Amino acid sequence: MYYLKVKNLTLGYGNDIVIKNLNLSLKFNTNYQIIGRNGAGKSTLLDFISNNFQGNFFDSRIEVERIRILQISNKVTLIENLSLMENCYYFTHEDSISKESISLILEEYEVHHFKDELIQNFSSGMVKRSELALAQIINPEILCIDEPVNYLDNEGIEILKKLLKKRTDNKKSNILSSQESLDVFEDKYEIIDLNVY
Amino acid sequence: MFIKNFLIRKELLSEYRNNTSLFLITPTMAVLVLVFPILSENRFVVDDDFFIINQLLFLIIFTTLFSIRNPLNQNKLIRELNFGNIHRSYFFRFKTLSEFIIFFPQALILLALFSLFTNTEIKSSLFYIIISVIFFSINSIMVNVVFQMFTSFSNRFVQFILMVPVFMSLSFFVAPIWLGINPNLTNIYLLMYLGISILISSYTSWFLQKDLK
């Protein structure tokens, strides 16, 4: 079953076209890796999939199912003048998950020591870990991660792999984008190669 | 739950930790209020030309207050709302409400300081003053939020230039109410404010709903 089907997807900013005539169908319960060189449109496609695209659509046919898609981009999404714990309450709407469960997950991602620190004082790696922890707390149907290993150390990459494995076991989908195919999925995945477009 | 506490809490916390917070700006503005009549007229008491000075002061104060707020970056805002699965119309409503909670006491403080430092009696009844400040605040805030949500101007100077006429027209309406004009005229002014509020909020609701289809 598909949650997104597009025909002749053409996306751009102003008059500049970034992705041209892309046909794409994304299935539930399947992992994807978007690969492509610099400027191939990986981040643009990921923004489009996660409903964060702010550019122009040109004559594209889009069928989409409304589900929770969460994107971890290269830019910081967390609110910088709130602490990590306050961010967790904000993005989980305060009432959907207990404080203890949040603390446990933050501990798993080794960011619990900083839970009362403001995000603006975090390093890029800590921000990425915190966003991954939030992704586990929110547990969306689809998780999109742009350049997933950027800013992460070896330990962080192991944490990322664990998260992807856990999500795959729970029949949730993940979409990653990077220049080359990454060895982060334990199970099989499909490749969307933007170099051929 | 009808009231989205998490949105209000986030806005209030952000405001509290903001370096250009209204909590800092208001005392600065109070100094301006104190100094301006002295500089312009070389005296504290303002009488016949109070109307013009009042408008000028409020124009300076409110445009400055809003132009130094943290601008909303549309791209970042959309990412944030999608990340938290927050409906845009909820955001608009509760952003307006939180801004009002921040702004309303500041507007009253400014009004009191203005009256105190310029030794000027405000002639309207307390009821009219409160109602007019509420309308003034709501309208200014809604214009500010709508403007920031639908444009990608993150430059404070551009914001300042574009928003001056909006606040100027809003302050033209509010100044006579504080001066204590005829009650019938006051009612008309308040109705005009109500009309503007309904117009802005209905347009925004329509725009946000349309955008989601």
What would you note in describing this structure?
The complex is a heterodimer of chains A (197) and B (213). Chain A is of the alpha/beta class. Chain A has 5 helices and 9 strands. In chain A, the strands form 2 sheets. A 5-stranded parallel β-sheet of chain A has the order 6-7-8-3-9, sandwiched between helices. In chain A, strands 1, 2, 4 and 5 form a 4-stranded antiparallel β-sheet that branches. The longest helix of chain A is centred in the C-terminal third of the chain and has 16 residues. Chain B is mostly helical and 213 residues long. In chain B, helix 5 crosses helix 6, helix 6 packs parallel to helix 8 and helix 7 packs antiparallel against helix 8. Chain B is globular, with a radius of gyration of 18 Å. The mean pLDDT of chain B is 75. Chains A and B meet through strand 6 and helix 2 of A and helix 1 and helix 4 of B.
Q: Give the termini distance of chain B in whole angstroms.
A: 24 Å
Low-confidence stretches of chain B: none
Q: State the helicity of chain B in percent bands.
A: over 70%
- Mean pLDDT over all positions of chain B: 75
Compose a concise summary of this entry.
Chain A has 197 residues and is of the alpha/beta class. Helices cover 29% and strands 27% of the residues of chain A. Chain B is an all-alpha fold.
